[in-house]
Amino acid sequence: MVFGKLLKALKKTRDVLTTGLARLFKGRQLDDAFLDELEELLYNSDLGPLGTKIVDELKISYKKKEIKETEEVPAFLRVKLLEMMAGCEGEITRAATGPTVILVVGVNGAGKTTSIAKLANYLKKEGNIVLLGAGDTFRAAAVEQLTLWSERLGIEIVKQETGADPAAVAFDATAAAIARKVDYLILDTAGRLHTQKNLMTELEKIVRVVKKQLPDAPHETLLVLDGTTGQNAIRQASEFQKSAPVTGLILAKMDGTAKGGALFGIREVLPVPVKFLGVGEGIDDLEKFVVQDYVDAILRFDVETTA
Fold it and tell me: Which domains, and CATH codes, for the chain?
């Protein structure tokens, strides 16, 4: 991962956390009052209940005199956050034979279509042949936007008119992927909420028609979450896992939020790999998720606030 780009993207999250920590640490001794204030700070940094969990462990270490000074706290926090995110990294699956089908789901406005374009660009730059399937037929803008990206990237797209059956698009796109011997087929789907039963039923239908041609597909079902929504993203992740076999996450818009800490809470409710982070508006601003880089970008104290 290009650490500098991630560092810049997570600046708002880092500023909230490290500025608060720096203010909290100034001239303070490690005592019960300090620990209570630290718990409040972590909770309000979108770590939520996980902040309380970390401080509870810190209190135990404090009482055992394993940690005696406030200067030891940042290293303790880093270790605990790394432990929480252990096993969270993951590569995009590659089918043993034939095209790899990636189904992309999420709510409207989460950055799904743009994330698909970034992912297609990423895979193409890795030397893969990529095909797009415009399965969000409910919104004309979604098909138009994906078509525009396909033209810019020089990637073929399978689409139908607005209002067409999304499962029909998925069927045609899968057939085309097989016939053209592509490496990856990325299927867009209509933005949906877990409460929209008709759309969830439609998603099941899409999966069925894909499996008719490729029994082991989709090989990935990626959920795109808007990083700016904080605790809302946690709730969406929790509900989506009940309705869709999510295999991985893309956290979009991480550059525009001070709520990057919500990823720890998301991990708690949906323990699947985070595949990518959206770290900017450019087509190349999609970075593979690396736990250590992510934690260090949030907790790093040795950078200027203008970094």
Answer: 3-84 (1.20.120.140), 100-289 (3.40.50.300)
Query: CA nearest 48: which of 256, 270, 230?
Result: 230
User: The tokens 């956290």 sit on which residue?
Assistant: 251
pLDDT, tens digit (0-9, with 9 covering 90-100), for 256-302: 655 666 788 788 777 889 999 988 889 999 989 988 888 888 776 55
Q: Cβ contacts of residue 109 below 8 Å, gap of 6+?
A: 191, 226
Cβ 100 vs Cβ 183: under 8 Å:
yes
Residue 220, beta-bridge partner list:
102
* Unique residue bearing structure tokens 């956050």: 81
pTM higher than 0.90:
no
The beta-carbon contacts of 84-87 under 8 Å, at least 24 apart in sequence, are 84/50, 84/264, 84/267, 84/268, 85/263, 85/264, 85/267, 85/291, 85/294, 85/295, 86/291, 87/273
